[in-house]
Amino acid sequence: MPVLLVLLLAVAAEITVIVAVGSAIGVLPTIGLLVLATVLGGALLRREGLRALSALQQAVFARRAPEKELVDGILIAAAGILVVLPGFISDVLALLLLLPPTRALLRERLIRRAEASRPVIVVDSVVVNTSDGSDTSGRPSRPVVIQGDVEGQV
Question: What PANTHER family has UniProt attached to this entry (predicted)?
């Protein structure tokens, strides 16, 4: 129910802004601005999408986790959806998502939030500080492997 309410409010806001702009500058200039925003958004979408794809490929080839590149791709996809929706508010939000500095701010915030919500599981804490490679109890230190199945939420 809240999602439906948010969508209705968004549609009402878009219509209100279009009517306000239309009454201020006229119908044809308003339509022209909407078309111009869509064309500009499409061009930026293509450019930033290709950049994000290239960065993702480089991260994969470098064998590092492509978390930034994947989040960028998701944000660019969201901008693509917003750019095709008619309205000034959605176009402004899409253009903001397509600009690298604003997207970087949002990306870092999303990554921090995801890392904070990730569960942390400590399996074994062994302090290795002896010259023969054993832990403080005298046992040789080696990785602990626990095999099993996970059921339910972690």
Answer: UPF0716 PROTEIN FXSA
Q: Using CA atoms, how far apart are residues 40 and 33, in angstroms rounded to an integer?
A: 10
What pTM value is reported for the model?
A: 0.71
Torsion of CA 121, 122, 123, 127, to 10 degrees: 160
Cα 39 to the center of its chain, rounded Å? 23
- Stretch 139-150: mean pLDDT: 63
Q: What tens digit of pLDDT does each residue of 56-91 get? A: 999 999 999 899 999 999 999 999 999 999 899 999
| Residue 26 domain-assigned (yes or no) | yes
Count the domains in the chain: 1
**What is the rounded distance in angstroms from the CA atom of residue 10 to the CA atom of residue 2?**
12
Is 15 a domain residue? yes
Q: Which residue has the tokens 């917003």?
A: 82
The one-letter code for the residue type at 90 is S
Whether 63 and 103 have beta carbons less than 8 Å apart is answered as: no
What is the rounded average pLDDT for all residues in the chain? 84
